[in-house]
């Protein structure tokens, strides 16, 4: 996974879901297709995961947010 800058929608709560990501110095709008949460039962550390699709090219990526640090990461499926 690679760190990535993400702009989020802040509705009922902060950083509710991603709306765009910064790829190669350009902002790309994304649409969330699926969302999940993963928690390690031994450590209590967790990640929020999102399967997103870019609105301009139709590419799909997995985005993860570390629930402890708030840092976002991208992974190409």
For the record, give the distance between the C-alpha atoms at the N and C termini, rounded to a whole number: 11 Å
Uncertain runs are: none
Helicity level: under 10%
The biggest beta sheet reads: 7 strands, antiparallel
* Integer-rounded radius of gyration: 12 Å
- Residue-averaged pLDDT, rounded? 92
- Total strands: the figure is 7
Q: Please work out how many helical segments DSSP would assign.
A: 0
H/E series, N to C?
EEEEEEE
Strand content: over 45%
Class by helix and strand content? mainly beta
Number of domains: 1
Can you list the strand order of the major beta sheet? 1-7-6-5-4-3-2
Coarse shape: globular
Structure, explained:
The structure is a single chain. With 77 residues, the protein is mainly beta. The chain is 0% helix and 61% strand. It has one domain (2-75). Strands 1-7-6-5-4-3-2 form a seven-stranded antiparallel sheet, with no helix packed on it. A hairpin with a 7-residue loop joins strand 2 and strand 3 (17-23). The chain is globular, with a radius of gyration of 12 Å.
């Amino acid at each position: 996974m690679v760190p990535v800058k993400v702009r989020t929608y802040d509705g009922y709560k902060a950083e509710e879901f991603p709306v765009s990501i910064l790829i190669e110095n350009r902002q790309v709008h994304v649409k969330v297709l699926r969302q999940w949460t993963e928690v390690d039962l031994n450590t209590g550390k967790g990640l929020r995961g999102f399967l997103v699709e870019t609105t301009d090219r139709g590419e799909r990526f997995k985005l993860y947010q570390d629930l402890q640090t708030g840092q976002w990461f991208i992974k190409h499926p």
